[in-house]
Design goal:
Radius of gyration: 17 Å
Distance between the termini: 27 Å
Strand order of the largest sheet: 3-2-1-4-5-6-7-8-9
Helix content: 25-40%
Bound molecules: adenosine-5'-triphosphate, magnesium ion
CATH superfamily: Ribokinase
Number of domains: 1
Number of helices: 8
Largest sheet: 9 strands, mixed
Shape: globular
Strand content: 15-25%
Amino acid sequence: MIPNVLSIAGVDPSGGAGLLADLKTFSALGAYGTGVVVALTAQNTQGVTSVQPVPAAFIAQQLDTLFADVRIDSVKLGMLGTAEVVATVAAALRRHGVRRLVVDPVMVSKSGHHLLSPDAVAALLSQILPLAEIITPNLPEAEVLLACAPIRTLADMRAAARALHALGPCIVVLKGGHLDGAESTDIIDDGTSQFELPATRIATKNTHGTGCTLSAAIAALLPQHANPVDAIRAAKTYLTSAIATSGELDVGSGHGPVHHFHNLWK
Ligand SMILES: Nc1ncnc2c1ncn2[C@@H]1O[C@H](COP(=O)(O)OP(=O)(O)OP(=O)(O)O)[C@@H](O)[C@H]1O
Ligand SMILES: [Mg+2]
């Protein structure tokens, strides 16, 4: 059965991150993509110049209307923006009994634009993380969620991943893109075991939306694998190939997008 996957996220008109990137990822990985828009951004590969939030009541209406008709097999959460939106989305997820939830706790864009207000972090911790099957923070996001010192080494990452698991999700994928060095290794923690997702760091500036793409790939693949860790491993493999082939695209002069359809376009 082809899974129906939902992204709840913001729109990046350059198509490299956010809802548009999520839909490309779903499509590349054999899932039917649906999307609920939480915010519009004015953005290109160089940065975000403005954010226009969608009213919370209308986000709830988009979700309720969609769920009233469409079976949703997994959900990915991206940029949420404000505490009010976090609370609205959390209530809707509970209302519709969403169980397969991948949370990418987006806080700051690659270009440095803040995408989550401080009071929204508290709402995310109390209302969203306990509902999550999987969370995919990067290192700065993990430091905010844990209110901890900078995470600099693989050993720091292992300790942080275990601490993040205690915040409620079933599985933590702590992303190592912000680590220094030749590797961009992620850590998976399911509360009892830890697994490394090793990857050689690819020398490219085309890393716009890598985090969005990874979390969307996990959401697309979760319903297609019996074991969530297998879905995460397959998602990481897909992302690494999409980064490696990003040079085939020519999109903007800043941080360019990854090649979502590298397996399909010959
Ligand atoms: N240069 C690279 N080469 C290989 N893998 C990378 C590279 N940069 C990031 N990754 C991988 O991409 C994924 C996203 O990592 P990162 O830590 O950059 O997330 P992020 O900061 O949330 O990204 P975004 O800015 O898109 O939100 C991780 O799996 C990470 O290991
Ligand atoms: Mg991110």
